[in-house]
Sequence to fold (432 residues):
Amino acid sequence: MEARVRAEWDRLRSVVIHRPGIEMFFGLLDPYAVLYERAFSRRDARREHEHLEDILREEFGVQVLRLKETILDAADHDPVVRQRLVDWAQETVTIRGSQREVAEARRNMEQNADALDSQHFFTLLLVSPIIEVDRGRTGSGVDIRIMGQGPLTNLYFMRDQQAVAGCGLVISRLAKPQRSRETEITRFLWEILGIPVAGVVQEPGTFEGGDFMPMGDFALIGTGDRTNMDGIRQFLDCATGFDEIGVVHQPGHPLIPSSRPDPMIDMHLDTYFNVAGSGMVIGSEVLLRRAQVEICHRTGEGYVPSNETVTLYDYIRSKGFAVIDLSILEQLSYAANVLCVRDGVILAVEGEEVMRTVLANLERKAAIDVARYGRLLQHAQQDYRRIRNTGRFFPHTIEFSQHGIEVCPLHLENLTGGYGGPHCMTCALERG
Fold:
């Protein structure tokens, strides 16, 4: 199987997703510590994710591969894959106690392996548990702690662990420690699927797939909180299929003090800019006009900066794209995080309920730190009143119909609580 994507508007053929499981339970014990935006219902989030999968498969004919199920199916049918999974999972477990007790616990773990199903070992990878053994205190029992090792609570955001371009698949190096182990599991999946890896971003580089946007002859790559210039340089050593690269610098939000920015608001390029079709993009014009783009041209020796810098808004307009503007509140509510399934057809977050939850969370943050979030909250509240008075919540706006864009709205009120929409939740393996 190969992974190839030339342009974000080409017909989506295959994606990989991950239905959040027990790891999300542990994340919701402390949502903000694991990079979630807010608390939400895990049960309803799983239902929303199931609906996303059904829409992709049934409505648009996309081949949908689920990460966990693909790995487990391979492990259950191939003894070599099963043994790799078992060995790796057991290495992930930390056991603490006396030398004798640790050795006994390890021995029991190995002896019990054949009796345990493959999902048991996949779960170990997700939660990476710490087992404390103290038989002197508990008799024959054990104490188990989970959170210390950092469950992979953000794994369902499958966009970020890699980027797929015309050159193939490049493995990311995620910037936040909460997410650093995710690429180990996704790389295991690529090996099972037989997908060649065109490159791997390594330290000191960081690179995340949400910052990459293939646009046919050119591509945009965001840099800032999640992707650094070292990561971009490493990526460009592999992604040689574009005549031009625009390096987009993450803009600070004008309604948040520059001395105390909040990079989560526009952490990735796809949180404030995205593609709706071959001549149409959507985004927050306020941020597009603040984001600076360094233009690089391909030469025989790689990509060379042209020493030309323009705003993202001017750059994309110069390429012939029309721009559908998003309000401050719409951008905060994941309106930019659409998934283009074919030219002029997108999956988008149903905005009304998400806007209310985002506003409530912003009110909480402003109550704690009004100097940082007060102006943003005030503007978002004004946006909400204006939008409510029109009766047209995103994505039920006239701009899409005016430009001939077909929209499939998705109720993702809970899943977006993790800080992303349908684009973030899908790894596009093949378009064309």
